[in-house]
Amino acid sequence: MSGAKEDKAKGAANKAAGKVKEAVGKATGSDKTEAKGHAQQAKGEAQKGKGELKEGLKK
Fold first, then answer.
1. How far is CA 21 from the centre of its chain?
2. What is the pTM of this model?
3. Which of 11, 8, 15 is nearest to 51 (CA)?
4. Which pLDDT value is given to residue 15?
5. Which distant-in-sequence residues (6+ apart) come within 8 Å of 43 by Cβ?
6. Could you tell me how far CA 6 lies from the centroid of its own chain?
7. Closest among 2, 10, 1, 16 to 49, alpha carbons compared
8. Distance between CA 32 and CA 43 in Å, rounded?
């Protein structure tokens, strides 16, 4: 897998995992878990953006 595709895939995975953590945190009343979910989603967005940037530089 190319670097750009790998970054985009990892970004999507982190976003999905972050959404799950956020939902679990809300359901259990755990602000800490909910915050971790938000942070992981932000990390996923950054990874996805990095992959898109790499992809754009190749063109």
1. 12
2. 0.85
3. 8
4. 97
5. 11, 14, 18
6. 13
7. 10
8. 16
